[in-house]
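[agent] plan:
  1. take the single chain provided in the ticket
  2. run structure prediction with default settings
  3. attach structure tokens to the ticket
  4. add a short note for the reviewer (M.T.)
[agent] executing step 1
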Amino acid sequence: MKQDIKPSELSQPLSVQLKSIADELVQTLRHVKQEHINQVPFTGSWTAGQLGEHVRLSVTGITGLLNGPTGDTNRSPDKYVQALKTMFLDFDLKFVAAPAITPADQFYDKGSLTEELAAAFESLMGITETKDLTDSCTAFEFPGMGYLTRLEWIYQTIYHTQRHTQQLNNIAVKFQ
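[agent] step 2 finished; step 3 output follows
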């Protein structure tokens, strides 16, 4: 049985959360000097530019996923939200980025990157106001969980961005 959650019931809090985490990430990236954007801060780490590009690629990909094919959800539409939070906010866990969201080893311009990040989040925020967040996105199965709802993908983006904002803060401190 499908549980209806209207976008209007969730969009304001989600929009506010998305805007808040997007603003925090962009502001943190702006605090890193351009001369440090493309410098590796720690052995085995991405640069600040690569980290920003990774988040941009992820948000853009998820926006496409949320606009893609969907199906009815026969479970609670927020079933995996807590599991996603636990996973992405456990800073002891290390992940390998999927090839589609692995940033290139190239020069990144801070101004362009921050503008592109802000635009990517704006597109995602629009979905919270226009789409049925309870539908399951059927173009991609999240490893170990299966098809996630739009609501769960949005929360995944929130937690993923919080994780990388913390990493970006660590990079910013390194270069102070």
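[agent] step 4 note for reviewer: Strands lie at 70-71, 136-137.
[agent] ticket updated
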